[in-house]
Design goal:
Layout: H1 3-10, H2 12-29, H3 37-51, H4 66-83, H5 86-102, H6 114-135, H7 139-144, E1 146-148, E2 151-152, H8 153-176, H9 180-193
Antiparallel strand pairs: 1-2
Helix pairs in contact: 2-3, 4-5, 4-6, 5-8, 6-9, 8-9
């Protein structure tokens, strides 16, 4: 089945519409409604479909200044947390807390160093670019539809956040020790982490 159809079938709007349509069929089979029942069923589906709020676009403006971009990214993380399931929200918040600890330490290094650039990009671009496509998925699809090795999009999202958390913990330790060589290794790892598109986009 084409992916677009799968996303439609799993969408909260379709589930809500189908639920109301089934209610209409129930009214028909119990004799409450006799005439115009097909139109009533279709009408109830449309009402249910339209009642569900559509996905909110949380994408960041790439033209924002670095400071503004960080504040916008923080707001995005807060808004995303309200939309994510508890395990995903916890994984995201752990990553963000590490970034908030790490970013002030970058003042110790040359601002033109690639290390500084990569960490800031992780906070203001890579992480938001990871969150946005995941939130665009219907919640039922993200939680239940297997994509890779039996894993769902939520499993893969949390796994990538966990990998990022591990890398940032090592990066934070190296930054505290001002271990520039180790930081460069971690910087390369971060770039590799975000080089591939997320599995739920495939």
């Amino acid at each position: 089945m084409p992916r677009s159809w799968l996303l439609y079938l799993y969408s909260t709007a379709n589930i809500a519409g189908a639920s109301l349509a089934l209610l209409g069929l129930g009214l028909f089979f119990t004799g409450v409604v006799r005439e115009w029942w097909p139109l009533i069923v279709v009408g109830l589906y449309v009402v249910g479909y339209r009642l569900v709020p559509k996905h909110t676009d949380l994408h960041l403006d790439s033209s924002l200044a670095q400071e503004d971009a960080f504040r916008a990214a923080e707001k995005l993380v807060q808004e995303a947390t309200d939309q994510l399931s508890k395990p995903a929200a916890e994984a995201l918040n752990l990553v963000w807390e590490l970034l908030k600890e790490l970013l002030p330490l970058l003042g110790r290094f040359d601002p033109n160093d690639k290390i500084v650039y990569d960490i800031k990009q992780t906070a203001t671009k890579h992480l938001p670019d990871l969150i946005e496509p995941y939130l665009a998925l219907p919640p039922a699809f993200a939680r239940f539809h297997p994509l890779k090795n039996g894993q769902t999009a939520r499993d893969l999202f949390i796994q990538q956040l966990n990998d990022l958390e591990t890398a940032l913990k090592e990066t934070l330790a190296d930054a505290l020790n001002e271990d520039v060589d180790r930081l460069r290794i971690q910087s390369a790892f971060l770039q590799k982490t975000f080089a591939k598109r997320a599995d739920w986009l495939s």
